[in-house]
Amino acid sequence: MKIKLFILFTIITSFIFSENIKINVVNDLQLQKNNIIDQYQYYNTLSINSLYNNFSAGITLRLNNYYLQIPNNSNGDSNFDLYRKYIQFNSKNWHVNIGDFYTLLGKGLVLSVLKNDEIIKERTVLGAEIKYSKNSLNIKSIAGFVKNETDTQEWTVFGSEILYSPIKKIKIGAHFSFIDDNENNYNFYGKRYTTTFSLRLSNIFNIFDFYTEAGILDFDNDDIEDGYGIFSNLSYSKGHSTISVEFKRYKNFNNLMNNPPVADRGDELTNLIDTIGGRILYQYSFFDPDIVAFINLGYYEEGLDKGIHIYFGLEAQDIFDKLSIIGSYGVRNIIYPIKKADIDVLYQITDRISIESTYKLKYYKISDSIIFNEQDINFELSYLPNFSFFFLYQYSKQKIINRNHFYSGGFKYYISDSFNIRLLGGTMRGGETCSGGQCIKVQPFKGFKISIYKSF
Amino acid sequence: MKNKATLSIIFILLCFNLFFAKVPDFSLKSINDNEIKFSEYIGKKIIVIDFWATWCKPCKKLLKDLNKIYKELNNEIEVFAISVDNSQAIQSVENYIKARRFKFKVLLDSDRRVNNYFNPSNVIPFTVIINKKGEVSYAHSGYIPGYIKELKSKIKEILEN
Q1: Over the stretch A242-256, which tens digit does the pLDDT of each residue have?
Q2: ipTM of the assembly?
Q3: What domains are defined for chain B?
Q4: How confident is the model over A188-238, as pLDDT tens digits?
Q5: Which residues pair with A364 in a beta bridge?
Q6: Contact A438/B123, CB-based, under 8 Å?
Q7: Which of A102, A180, B122, B132 allows an S-S link to A156, with CB 3.0 to 4.6 Å?
Q8: Which residues on chain A are in Cβ contact (under 8 Å) with B145?
């Protein structure tokens, strides 16, 4: 009932203020046949954003029947809800947001509540956010509640950050978060306070950049040992070379809502409980032809274990104006071994026709019986400007939706600048998937999927 | 049944009531922690926004193309390459950009505030062109080889209009 009243209110106000108010609507529909439950599944989001002078407001309505795949589902055939809502005020110096929002303070050492694409019900802060920026000063404060993906737990969250630049090229910051488990929680941690200070030096002597952030995590609960964390990065760029040196140390630094940076490929292990380590990333750029070669050497100690993390590769684009190659290979040998490899080759046959093939390998050996060996082979043919066809084969050693081999294919058709249709059929393992010139994080599925994108 | 019918009517009414669309005055942090406000650029230049992430290979190809376009037309356009990487990848964004010496502005939208406005389906790369009136003139998802020509012709068309 509240949703309908809200929508009616939006319609009425938009008619009243029709001379001044601007509205933008994007609808995104995904429809797929799920052969496991023998049902069609749909997931539709309709986002309506409006702007009136310095104010903007938006809602995202969601209609889906994904609950159908839950055994003994008791949520009904379909679910319609007001998924996201916000009202914002923006002026030259102020930004005020009330409603749902993601948030990040510093580099994520104190607070990081961000989008999670891999699950449908992801987290936001529901509350208020205020930002003030003038000249060399930026202040941001947030307060609200965060729920977990299944709405079974809730946290009270408060965060604040001040960034100040006393002189050009230098920025200092203070970052703070308070998190408390609400009554329905498993209540592992209780009240905790995370405070960090940061320093950024930009473009020193035109070749150096430096960032460091360090702080403490203070638990009210005396049974939990207080912790600390440090993240530092120094980079050097001159001529063809770029060198980045990184150091990190985390001890009892997990507040359940922090997520500090890790190495580029996402396979670096950083558990925040007891990590010390560092890495050097060297990148050499040939500018003509456009090639960047890179190598990363890392060493980490995780609790009682220690080991290396190495990866290397290159990105070569527009070779002879026809060929692009992006590839890398890496191993991490801490606690359990991980190997990751990927290569992407694209050849442009004519101005309109091109072929592209990619191969990806992810190999994780957690124990002799738990081995993740995932491989993707993608072949794609594009005909400009409207069509793109692709075929994707995926292999997974661990059975997902009762299978190891996944075959899918599809096409994308651009009807106009703001209107395209994408049809995908077959089976997909899920995860980060790039095909048809687009990337998105998807869940495993079997069947077909239609995505219609239309911007009004 | 009655509820569904009501919702359908509301949706249709909304669709008929739509007209587009000045862009709100977003501000985002650059990779150097500088606050970049869209309003400081709207009206002066055409703004080309590209949403991308370090794990997305088509995005990297498009960034290279955008760099070429920016070098050629930087007096008339401003390019904002907006990373939607999460906080774990923030340092990777810096490392990636520095080695390639891209000249355009690279902004961080880890909280997806701006991305959700333009691109709620979260498919990347996603390109938006904002004209000098502050209105969205063009939106496109995905990258296919040769897309640089189409993008360039769209920019020129908008510049001429």
Answers
A1: 999 999 999 999 998
A2: 0.78
A3: 2-160 (3.40.30.10)
A4: 788 999 999 999 999 899 899 999 999 999 999 888 999 999 999 999 999
A5: A338, A372
A6: yes
A7: A180
A8: 346, 348, 354, 356, 382, 384
